[in-house]
Design brief:
Largest sheet: 10 strands, antiparallel
Number of strands: 12
Order of helices and strands: EHEEHEEEEEHEEEEHH
Shape: globular
Oligomer: single chain
Number of helices: 5
Low-confidence stretches: none
Helix content: 25-40%
Strand content: 25-35%
Distance between the termini: 45 Å
Length: 239
């Protein structure tokens, strides 16, 4: 049975409209497909749940428009987008996006834009370098504040409104520069600097939920980052 992995990204609201978000989504799909042909061929679900091919920026915009959500906060009318994409021929690989959410401060609530990408382990990219490439590509496309790569159950997913926005620590963890410099890491963990922050890889092999040593190494990394004060809440970092 193939393992499932999960890429999660979070970022604060920005002043960007439909076309800008469509550009980011199109960039992600194009770049992961260029990296791995196994990740070519995505579709989006329209309002009726019918799969439509997603081949470029125009289709990315359609994917967003057909899943637009109109809402209101303090008499302010807002529109965000929640498209669902699926990889053709796979029953498990899908991307959920929630974007277009501006920076809001109702009682300090955690209401980020976010991406949730569930993917099946594949020989082509089911290793540390392949997964880090996909993670880095998603981070660059959406200019995330924080994120992680894990399994469907580890780490626990942070949910809007029900979380303080403290970044979870996964097999791979991304923190933007806003979280400050990273401390010396536990043995076996590596830092990979990016333009806007750093990815920390807890271990060079694929993370296994059922491996006690893997879970211990993940907890050691979490404690190290927490003790150094870099795992601050989203609201504190936003300042």
């Amino acid at each position: 049975m193939q393992s499932l992995y999960r890429i999660q990204l979070y970022w604060h609201g920005r002043d960007e409209g439909l076309e800008a978000i469509a550009n980011r989504l199109s960039q992600l799909i194009a770049n992961v497909g260029a990296g791995y042909r196994e990740l070519q061929g995505w579709s989006y679900l329209d309002k009726e749940g019918t799969a439509r091919p997603l081949t470029g920026r125009s289709e990315s915009q359609s994917a967003l428009e057909c899943r637009a959500v109109d809402w209101e906060v303090a008499a302010r009318k807002l529109r965000s987008y929640q498209p669902l994409l699926r990889l053709d021929g796979s029953p498990s690989d899908e991307i959920e996006l929630a974007a277009g959410i501006p920076r809001l401060e109702p009682a300090g609530a955690f209401m980020p834009n976010r991406l949730r990408w569930q993917l099946t382990q594949h020989d082509a990219y089911g290793h540390v370098d392949g997964m880090r490439f996909l993670f880095n590509t998603a981070i660059a496309a959406f200019e995330a504040d924080f994120g992680y790569v894990g399994t469907p159950t580890t780490p626990t997913e942070v949910l809007p409104l029900f979380s303080t926005g403290v970044p979870p620590v996964g097999w791979m963890t991304y923190l933007s520069r806003a979280y400050g410099p990273l401390p010396p890491l536990p043995k076996g963990a590596l830092e990979h600097p990016l333009a806007g922050g750093s990815v920390v890889v807890a271990m060079p092999e694929l993370f296994d939920d059922y491996d006690d040593e893997h879970r211990s190494r993940l907890e050691a990394l979490r404690r190290t980052l927490a003790d150094a004060g870099v795992l601050e809440s989203s609201a504190q970092v936003a300042g």
